[in-house]
Fold this protein.
Amino acid sequence: MADLLAGTLDLLILRVLSPGPLHGFGIGERIHVVSRKALEIEEGSLYPALYRMEAKGWLKAEWGQSARGRRARLYSLTKAGCSQLETEQKNWSQAALAIAEVLKNA
């Protein structure tokens, strides 16, 4: 499991939710699968991030059913969340370029 750089969890959650709503476990699982099992988000990090992002207005949560038919809180992006995703992606791209330059030229 790789450690996440500070601030990347928000980006990952926003991106994973961009196609549509998921419950908390589904968000963590999707990140794990898409990262080819390199990233595993612990519940102690995931749920506080979801609550914080909901408080900021980036996510909305509604009770619904999981794919397995269980009652679950489903998270989805708000308009502000979509805007924040664009900002986070731009910031990540700029940071990745800067890190690549340091690795290449240091």
